Amino acid sequence: MACKCKISLAWQMMIGLALGVVVGAFVDTSFAQTYLQPLGTLFIRLIRMVVVPLVVATIIAGAAGISDTSKLGRVAVKILCVYGVTTAIAVAMGLLFANLIQPGLGLNLSTDGLAAKAVKAPALSDTLLNIVPINPMEAMAKGSMLQIIFFAVIFGFGLAALGERGKPVLHFFEVVGDVMIRVTGYVMRYAPIGVFGLISFTVAKHGLSVLLPLFSLIVTSFLATATLVIVILLPMVAIFGKTGPVKFFKGIFEPWLVAFTTCSSAAALPANLNAARKLGASKAIASFSIPLGNTINMNGTAVYMGVCAIFAAEVFGIPLTLGDQLTVVLMGVLAAIGTAGVPGAGLIMTTVVFTQVGIPLEAVALIAGIDRILDMIRTSINVVGDVAAALVVSNMEGDLNKEPYVEGEM
Ligand code: ASP
Questions:
Q1: Is the pLDDT of residue 88 over 60?
Q2: Which domains, from first to last, does the chain contain?
């Protein structure tokens, strides 16, 4: 089975991607929709099937595994700080690049007939209250990740407090987590075909003609995101996470590619957990922080919020003052936190930012045409930021590289 000539999964996925681009360029949309899109949809469904049990099991095991509760609190605070700071920097980076490049200037696209519905920014109290599930089972059935995480963390706390008596249950959840990782392994064998289906459909549907007019938005988004990685995330991982860029890139390649092709950081969660562990994050910290970050830490989406705000303001000729741009940072952070790890979620959440600074929501429809490409860029960085934070906090806790990763286990 483990033959030397076997092409690695990552390469198989790259081949799927390349074939998808070529095939997508030649087939028409209806063919792609009928025959190719289902291949991709199957992949996304398989992955989503794994996510809830995986998150529940790993967070409970992760929280309870940090048996020292003061350490759990400390780790949680550190993780949240790293997430908050990197997300705010990410929105600012998006603003900076969009102000420099001005991607919206010179664009004269008609938005007649386009309309988008606003997602009203919920009151802060509602947002916070909504984190607490009334019924944890309902939260799991609906896949409400923040609620699931909240319950799992509390459950983990309780389990840790039971000490010896809680060990069998802790063991149970550890095993469930390992089983789900195995299951993910089976699902990932299908990934190259899934990637092929997703990409060929995207190329067939959106093609270059939609891409070109909004090319500068894509370039701005790409440059801002790349700069965030090169200037902030990589040095942060190197200095505070004791992991060099080459090792880091190799380690995150698989989840990065899953995120890039599926546009779903939730789909990349299993691969991301493995990546964090392989790179040396401790079991407890990885299984606590990666699912949490998967839900609330969206560095790529945050960059996108900043870029899109400026782009849309320019297209509609709305001047944004410094105060407006600060509002964009604040709302961008909240919107990124509230964005679900599924394709296109960030696009909907831009309305939270746009409404706050008076940008017409037609801008959403404008961006929608190329959002898949922007989504690829932002989603792949969403998952990278999570691994970066896990390494930094593992190192701060003196846990980096302490527990060697065993293939097939958390
Ligand atoms: N697609 C992104 C993700 O899954 C979310 C977004 O649309 O920004 O992380």
A1: yes
A2: 9-396 (1.10.3860.10)
